[in-house]
Structures are given as structure tokens and as C-alpha cells.
């Protein structure tokens, strides 16, 4: 489970818009919530908003892809909905040992099933409403239009007016089924997404997954800085800007990174190096273009930094990467020099 501060910010904004006091959320969250913390938070919210059972639907509907941070950037780098569904299965923010999210196929339909990690007292299906509202919002954003032939079956009675579900989720919704499942024609999963023609999409997606795995396993302020850096897609923000994003002073951020035996610059260099290696190995972009993508305007500076990080030049790394993959060496071209 990796419920970051950005989700809490959306919750606070929606509560404010609907006339609730965001103070119900409690202390400011600077780091991702664990399952026990999320349960306590949801319990407080439900107890403090007894007359607004539609709240989780509105919160989920407000979660555009940018809110999901690195997870959202990974989804936006996918070439198809099928690839995005795989990312969701592996890195669903609500994933835990006690939850279920799986994609299956049956009779020409793709079926996304979700069972929450816990039920919230007073609103047992709070997380399910939030998950499916956020999920359908993400799907519409990824394909750039409303879904056709997609519908939702929920394994419970509506928490609010049934019409509110179809209005917010913008698809047919029925209730009282054996399980909660989002269904649609299997070919929908093969619709090309906006990133399908982007040369760096696959390399960027792999880097997103790598850092998502690090964040989910390690935690700490280092992972939070990595998340912000990678979400910037090469335009790396300064240490003061990252500190502001994480709701702390630059001095506090540097001190906390030091406690984890690292620094802002060390993390920047590591992220840049990983991106550079992926782009060089997986794309035909020129060395100059790769350098520009990770923030080096001067080619000589990029070559010098890459040699320092890896002991070889970018061009040499590319040749070795190709050989390792069994592709053999190739004649240098304008794309590989």
C-alpha cells in the first residue's frame, strides 16, 4: 500500500468543496500512509460526514492522473490499456495482503475485480466506491474519451442515490452482484494510448516501475524525492522546490536525507543515470537527445557525467547494451553517435 500525501490533498479539497471541515483529516501527512493509518483516517472521515455517503465517489472522480504522481506517470507511459492494467495490478496504491485486484478474461470481456483491504465502519464500501471512481476517471483520461460498452457491477447496495454512480462514473452501474467488477469488451484494452507513438515511452515506463518498486519496498524521504524527480520528466526541480512539494523547509529535507545517508544531488544523479541508461539501451535517440531529456543542455557535460557514473561513454554503453541483448554490434549512425 502506498497512499501518498497527494491523495490526502485531493480528499481535503473535495471535503472543502462539499462543505466539510478538512480538519477531520487530522495532522498533515508528509509520508505515505500504511494500512492502519488509512483505516483510522477513513473511519474519522466517515464518522464526521454522516450525511454525505457520496463523498468517496466525488473524491475518486477528482483524482486525475497527475494526482497519482509516479504511479500516474507510469500509466501515462503505457501504450495500451492492457499494459496500464498490468501496472495497476502490480502497483495499485490500495494493494495489500488483505485486498484483491485482478484482471481476467471471460467470453470476450475483460474483467477488473477489486476487493478493498478493509471495510470502513459506517460506510463498508467507502474504498470500493473511491477505487472504481478513480479507476474510471483514469481510463477516460488515458483514452481521451468516454468508454463505450464498459459497465460496472458492484457487489453491494448503493451507498447513496444510485443515479449518482452513473452520473459520476459516466457508465452503467448495477448492484447486488457476487463481486465488484468493472467489465468491458476485451478489444478495448488494445486501444492505442497517447504514448503509443512516443519513442521513449517503454524506457520511461520501465524506469517508473523500477522506482515504484523501490518506493514501495523502502519508503523514506529518499523515495519521496525520487518520486518528485521522476514525475518531472527530466525537468528536475531544485531542492527548495522539492522541499516545498513535501511541505517542509529545504534545511529539514537535507537533514532528513542526511539521516538516510544520502543527499539531493546524489538522488538526482542516480535518477538521471538510470534514465540515461534506459534511453540508450531501449531507444534510437541520439546521445545528445538523451542528455537533453535528463537535463543536460551541453553534450560534453553529459558525456563527462555519464563516464563518471559508469566508467564508460554513452556510446560505449549503448554498444555493450545491444550486445548483451543478443542484438550484436551495429554500424554507428547519427542516432548512435
What does this molecule look like?
The protein has 337 residues and is an alpha+beta fold. The protein folds into 2 domains: 5-194, Alpha-Beta Complex (H-NOX domain); 199-324, Homeodomain-like (Arc Repressor Mutant, subunit A), CATH 1.10.10. The chain contains 15 helices and 5 strands. It has helices at residues 5-17, 35-48, 55-61, 69-76, 81-91, 126-143, 162-169, 201-218, 220-231, 239-245, 250-259, 264-282, 287-293, 299-310, 314-324, and strands at residues 100-106, 109-115, 151-153, 173-174, 181-185. A 5-stranded mixed β-sheet has the order 1-2-5-3-4. The longest helix has 19 residues, at 264-282.
Features:
337 residues; H-NOX domain; Arc Repressor Mutant, subunit A; 2 domains; 5-stranded mixed sheet; 15 helices
Structural class: alpha+beta
Order of helices and strands: HHHHHEEHEHEEHHHHHHHH
Quote the average pLDDT: 79
**Gyration radius over CA:** 22 Å
The name CATH uses for the topology of the largest domain is H-NOX domain
Low-confidence stretches: 327-337
Number of strands: 5
- Proportion of strand residues: 5-15%
Name the shape in a single word. Answer: globular
Topology:
Layout: H1 5-17, H2 35-48, H3 55-61, H4 69-76, H5 81-91, E1 100-106, E2 109-115, H6 126-143, E3 151-153, H7 162-169, E4 173-174, E5 181-185, H8 201-218, H9 220-231, H10 239-245, H11 250-259, H12 264-282, H13 287-293, H14 299-310, H15 314-324
Parallel strand pairs: 3-4
Antiparallel strand pairs: 1-2, 2-5, 3-5
Helix pairs in contact: 3-6, 4-5, 4-8, 8-9, 8-12, 9-12, 10-11, 12-15
